[in-house]
Amino acid sequence: MRPRVGYQRFFRCSALELALMTTIAVISASASADSVKTSVSAVVIAPANVSDTVLIHASSALASDVTANLTIRLPGAGLPGPDNRPLHSASATSLAVLSNDCLQTIRILASCVKRMHKDGMLNGDPVSNILLNAAVDTRFARNDVGVTVTYN
Amino acid sequence: MNSSIFQSKIFRRAALASIVALGAFGASNSFAAAASTASTATVIVPIAITKSADLVFGSFAKGAGGSVTVSTSGARTTSGPILSTVGGTPSAAQFDVTGEGVSTYTITWGGDVELLTGTGLTGETMALTRISDLAAGNATSGEVATGTLTAGAQSIYLGGVLTVGAAQVAGDYTGSVTATVEYN
Question: What is the third-level CATH fold of B48-183?
């Protein structure tokens, strides 16, 4: 093994010094900054088709000899609000329930639903001839579908 | 054959020049008087940021297209799309920053500017606009770029606006946002 000469030792020391300073700089930088990542998510749901079954909130079947307020809630509408009325999100899908005499166009769907259903409540026994309208995909089309209603 | 780099002519000249330069520095010490000074150092608490809640827009139908906004307090509103209460509960993201007592810091935002589903083809992305504040104050626009730690802590709240297309493809959309904090 050859003995080390002076300049070799000098350069080795310099390299060590440089490495030390770099380490200190890295430690210093990590102490003054930090970062974190958060995930962002959203779910786009497909509009319901008019042939789909309308989701009914309650489970009891309608009896013909009983009159009561009926609530038809569309899929995704969620639970009623504090006043036991359906939340505004009762029109939470691309479907809306309209009675036959709703004269307004689908374009102003929300007001039509409100007017005809009294904020989501239907009165009568039986309730019949309910039409479902696809609010988005077939904006002006009307299709008869079978609707089952239950007590709220 | 002599292959050592230390024995090459160029290397020897470079080393000699370095030694001469060091000698010059060393020589200057010969003309300086000795003095002492008090040295002080303050070790500060490193700044750190953690995430305690993600930004969730929840479920909605595209409707005729438009935008869905989640404010910095987590409230969700829509202009066009039809909101659904089924699925994930909308929420603003929350970041918790800790560090030295009362100190100011900068906030740098990064990450995705759109959420993606599938392979990101036409109709499979939604533009994301960030909203942030320091108080969960229901902000629906704007971003914060600086903060001040109080007693070594502060929280940052992140909401956003999603632009929903009339031809938006149904699916689960994801992305990420990065928050970086740095002492001023």
Answer: Immunoglobulin-like (2.60.40)
